[in-house]
C-alpha cells in the first residue's frame, strides 16, 4: 500500500539565540519521520533536516531577517511549506582586543558590530573574589581601573540591538600587568665585580628583569626567581639598579633606581722616585670613587711597610741598595680595588764605606773601599789640578794613574747599578800625590871635599835628599830649599848623584843621575931641601903614580913654580933667594881641568947660612889638610 505525504506543520515560534542560527518550534505531525527547515533572505536560502521539534538552522548571518518555513517528511514525500514566520538572527559578538596598560587597569576595545545599538562589558576575577564590574556603552572601547595588579580577570562582552536584545557574547581572560617589585636590595661582590640583586616577589609576575646602568653601559639579567646576579660590572663606576616585573600582560614600572658604587679601579700612573737619598716618594693618579689609598712596600730582606692616605702620594724611608716591591690599592665602602701593576724598585747603591786613598807614587794613588749592597760597578774619580781622572771596575780597589805630582785631589768612589745609577752625594776623601822629582841643574865644587848640588822643583812643601853613590860609599845631604852641600867626599873618586823629594804624601821618583868625579888627592909628606945657596928641592909622596904635580912657592921676594916630568915625586927650583919665608903648595894636575887649589899649604923658612945642602926649616901649615 502506497503511503501519502504528511500534513503541513504549523510553526509555533521561531527565534535566534546565536547570531548564526534560528531555532524553530512546532507541533509534531502524525506520520512524519522528519522535517525540512528553510531560512531564506534576499541573498540565500539555507535548509536543514531535523527529526523533531525544536530544530535549528545553522550557518546564518548575524542581525539578518529570515523567512522561516517548515515541511514534514515521510516515505510518501514532503508536505507543502508551512506558513512562513519571520525571525531575525541576534547580533554578532564583539571581537575584543584586551590589554593591561598599567598594573591596575585593563583596556578593552572592539570593532563596531552590525546593527548594534550598544554594548555590555563585564569583568571579574577568575578566582571569584571581589565583585563583578559591568559597563554599558555605545563606544567601542573602555578601560577598567582600580584593579588588582598581576591578577587574572574574565572579561565578557556582547552587543545589543535597538530592542535591547543581546547578541552573542565574547569571553576573554586577561591578567593585569604586575606591580613593581618591592624592597630591592643590592649586595656587591667585590671579588668577582658582580652584584646580587634581590626583591620581594610581585603578584602575577612571571619574569623579572634587572637593569644596571652607568650611563654608558647597560647590564641586564632575567630570572623567574626573586634574585639575580648582575655580572661584568666595571670598577670605578656608579650603577643605577632597577627591577621590572613581567607577565603575559606586560611589564611593571621599573622600581626606583638603587645606587651601586663599585670598588675603585687600581690606581694608575704610578711613579716611584728617590726625592732624596733614603726617601722614596710613591705617587699615582686619583681614581673614581677612591676614598682613600694604601701603599704596600716590601723590601727584599722581608720587611714590610704601608701607608694609608686620602692623597695621591706617600713617603717611605728606604735603604740604599735594596729592591722594594711596591703596590698601590684604592678603597671605598664597596671594598678594595683589584691588584694593579706591581713595581720592583731598586734604590741606588750605597756610597762605599771605609774609603782609603794613599799615594803610591808621584803620579798614582791607590784607592780601596768596602763593597756595598746593590753595586754592580764602581767608579773612582779624582778631581784636582784642573782635571778629572776616572777609574771603572767591579773590584773594590783601583789605582788612579797619570795624576799630577805634588797635587791635592779629592777622591770619590761611586757605586753604580744598571737599574738606578748611583748615589751622587757620596763624600770625597782628600789625598795628595807624592812630590815631583827634582831636576839637578848644577854641581859645583865649593872647597876641598865640599860639593854643592843645585836642583829645580815645583813642589810646594817637600824635603829633598841628595845622594852621592860610589865605590867609596854613600854620601847624603838634605834641604828644604833648592840646594844642599855634600861634604867629606873622598878625593879621586867617582859618584852618581841623584835627588829625591819627600813629603807627608810620599816620596818622589829619583831624579836623573848626574856623574861626579872628585879631584885627585893632594900628595903627602911634602919636604924641602936646599940645593946650594940658590936652589930648593921639593919632595912628596904621590897619591897616584899617573898624576902629574905642580909645585908653587910664594914668598916676599918672588913666586916660583916647577912641574916635574910624569912619574917623578920631586921638583927642583933654582935661583931662589934665601933668607925668606915661603908658602909651599904641591897640587895634582889633571888633563880635565886646572890644578887644584885646595891642597895643604906649608910654610918653610929658607936661611942663607950653613951647609949648602940640608933641611929647610919647617915653620908650619897655613891651613888644615883637607880632602876633596
From TrEMBL:
Domain Fibronectin type-III: 5-92, 93-179, 180-265, 266-350, 351-436, 437-521
Xref: PROSITE patterns: FN3
Gene symbol of the encoding locus: FNDC7
Lineage: superkingdom: Eukaryota
One Pfam family this sequence matches: fn3
Signal peptide residues on this chain, from the entry's feature table: none
Name of the protein described by the UniProt record: Fibronectin type III domain-containing protein 7 isoform B
